[in-house]
Amino acid sequence: MSEILSQHYDWLRALHIISIIAWMAGMLYLPRLLAYHAEAKTGSEASETFKIMEKRLLKVIMNPAMMAAWVFGILMIIANPALFDGGWMHVKMLAVVAMTGLHMAFAKWVKVFAADENTRDAKFYRIMNEVPAAIMVIIVIMAVAEPF
Ligand code: HEM
């Protein structure tokens, strides 16, 4: 198994990078939608449109992309378990777990808006919009520069 994975390692890495680009596009766009949605009147046409956009972004793009990023990432670890000797990989995986937790929080907020039960203001979601960007910076520096 790890022999075959090692032979196709660059394909796994390419598919990993494609899936994280899609995942991060959603992680950076969804909180922006929630911020605008928080300013829309409950029951208005705009609010109903935001519900459809948020649900589709989450279900069609973000969920499959996150799962693909995990699958291709884990396959690379199976192919090369020595990757875990590097401190950078430990920091990276901690940041990736934080990103996955944030994804789950976003999914919960999509449900709250869908039920017209949101109580938070747009400012909250604008601040939350910065968090995935900050975590992404840490992950990419660890994955590419491997500083320690
Ligand atoms: C979801 C769980 C994830 C796992 C299990 C994982 C695991 C891995 C592994 C094992 C590699 C190969 C490292 C190497 O061969 O040097 C890798 C490469 C990479 N990962 Fe992840 N990763 C995950 C998520 C992410 C996320 C969320 C990002 C960005 C936001 C990311 C960015 C990268 C980049 C840029 C590379 C390529 C590094 C290079 O080729 O120089 N990864 N990942």
Profile the largest sheet. Answer: none
In total, the number of domains comes to 1
The oligomerization state is single chain
Bound molecules: protoporphyrin IX containing FE
On the 0 to 100 scale, the average pLDDT is: 97
Q: Give the helix proportion (percent range).
A: over 70%
> How many distinct beta strands?
0
**Over all CA atoms, what is the radius of gyration?**
18 Å
Output the structural class: mainly alpha
Structural overview:
The longest helix has 35 residues, at 45-79. By secondary structure, the protein is an all-alpha fold. The protein has helices spanning 2-7, 9-39, 45-79, 87-114, 122-145. The protein has one domain (2-145). Helix 2 runs antiparallel to helix 3 and helix 4 packs antiparallel against helix 5. The chain has five helices and no strands. Protoporphyrin IX containing FE binds at residues 13, 16-17, 20, 24, 69-70, 73-74, 76-77, 83, 96, 99, 136, 139-140, 143-144.
